[in-house]
C-alpha cells in the first residue's frame, strides 16, 4: 500500500520560513494537498492540487511537489500558524494521509 | 454555505455495530464530481481515511478496513451514513465527515464537519 512520510515535528522562529515535507514513491506524479489542524479543531484545507490555495487561505502558504517529495512552505510564519499539518494524496482510488507534522513557532 | 454535521452514539460496546450519520447542506450529492468522505482520528494520533461515496453512488473504502465498513447516501435527506461492524476499543476516535471535490485528477476534502467522538468500551 502507498505511504506518505512526514517529519514528526518542525520548529521555526516567528517571521521565518517553515518547510514541511511529505515523501512518497513518485509522489510528484500524483497531486498532493495539505491540511492544517489546530488543537480541538477540525482540519482545514490550506493547499490543494499541489500549489493552489483555497479562498481565505493567506498567501504565505504555498506548496510544491516534485520527484518523491511534496513541500508545504509557510513564509513569514506567525504564531497563529502553530498547528499540526497533514499531507494527503490520491492513489489507486484511495485516500492516503501522511502521519502529520507538529509545527512549533518559537 | 456548505456545512456538515456528524451524529451518532458517543459510546459503543466492543463487538457492537456503529452507525454514524453525516447531515449536510449547501451542496447536492447529485452534482458531478462531488463526494462525501469519512475520516477518523484517534486521540493524539493522525488522520485516517475510512470511506468515500460519490455523486454517482460509486464507493471507495480504505483497503485495511474495507471488510468492516459500509457507506451509503440518501440524497433526498442530504445524508451519508457510515456503518462499522465489530467495533473494538482501538476504534475509539473522533469521526469526521467531509465534502470532497475533484480537480484535474486530484481529490481532496475542502470542508469538514466538527467531528464526533466515539468511545468503544464495555
Give a structural overview:
- The complex is a heterodimer of chains A (106) and B (122).
- Chain A has no helices and 9 strands.
- With 106 residues, chain A is mostly beta strands.
- In chain A, strands 1, 3, 4, 7, 8 and 9 form a 6-stranded mixed β-sheet that branches. A 3-stranded antiparallel β-sheet of chain A has the order 2-6-5, with no helix packed on it.
- In chain A, a hairpin with a 6-residue loop joins strand 3 and strand 4 (44-47).
- The N and C termini of chain A lie far apart (36 Å).
- The relative contact order of chain A is 0.34.
- The model of chain A has no long low-confidence stretch (mean pLDDT 97).
- Chain B has strands at residues 3-7, 11-12, 18-25, 35-41, 48-54, 59-61, 69-74, 79-84, 93-103, 106-112, 116-120.
- In chain B, a hairpin with a 6-residue loop joins strand 4 (35-41) and strand 5.
- In chain B, the strands form 2 sheets. In chain B, strands 2, 4, 5, 6, 9, 10 and 11 form a 7-stranded mixed β-sheet that branches.
- Chain B is mainly beta and 122 residues long.
- In chain B, 36% of the residues are buried.
- The mean pLDDT of chain B is 95.
- The A-B interface holds A 1, 30-31, 33, 35, 37, 42-45, 48-50, 52, 54, 86, 88, 90, 93-100 and B 37, 39, 46-49, 52, 60, 62-64, 96, 103-115.
Amino acid at each position: 500500500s502507498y505511504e506518505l512520510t512526514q517529519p514528526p515535528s518542525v520548529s521555526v522562529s516567528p517571521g521565518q520560513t517553515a518547510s514541511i515535507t511529505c515523501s512518497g514513491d513518485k509522489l510528484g506524479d500524483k497531486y498532493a494537498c495539505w491540511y492544517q489542524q489546530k488543537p480541538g479543531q477540525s482540519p482545514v484545507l490550506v493547499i490543494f492540487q499541489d500549489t493552489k490555495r483555497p479562498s481565505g487561505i493567506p498567501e504565505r502558504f504555498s506548496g510544491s511537489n516534485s520527484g518523491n517529495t511534496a513541500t508545504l512552505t509557510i513564509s513569514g510564519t506567525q504564531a497563529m500558524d502553530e498547528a499540526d499539518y497533514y499531507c494527503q494524496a490520491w492513489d489507486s482510488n484511495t485516500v492516503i494521509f501522511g502521519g502529520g507534522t507538529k509545527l512549533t513557532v518559537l | 454555505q456548505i456545512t456538515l454535521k456528524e451524529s451518532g452514539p458517543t459510546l459503543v460496546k466492543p463487538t457492537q455495530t456503529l452507525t454514524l450519520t453525516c447531515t449536510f447542506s449547501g451542496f447536492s450529492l447529485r452534482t458531478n464530481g462531488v463526494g462525501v468522505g469519512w475520516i477518523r482520528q484517534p486521540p493524539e494520533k493522525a488522520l485516517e481515511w475510512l470511506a468515500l461515496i460519490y455523486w454517482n453512488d460509486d464507493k471507495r473504502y480504505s483497503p485495511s478496513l474495507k471488510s468492516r465498513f459500509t457507506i451509503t447516501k440518501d440524497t433526498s435527506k442530504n445524508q451519508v451514513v457510515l456503518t462499522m461492524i465489530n467495533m473494538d476499543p482501538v476504534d475509539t476516535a473522533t469521526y469526521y465527515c467531509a465534502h470532497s471535490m475533484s480537480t484535474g485528477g486530484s481529490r481532496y476534502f475542502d470542508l469538514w464537519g466538527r467531528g464526533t467522538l466515539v468511545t468503544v468500551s464495555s
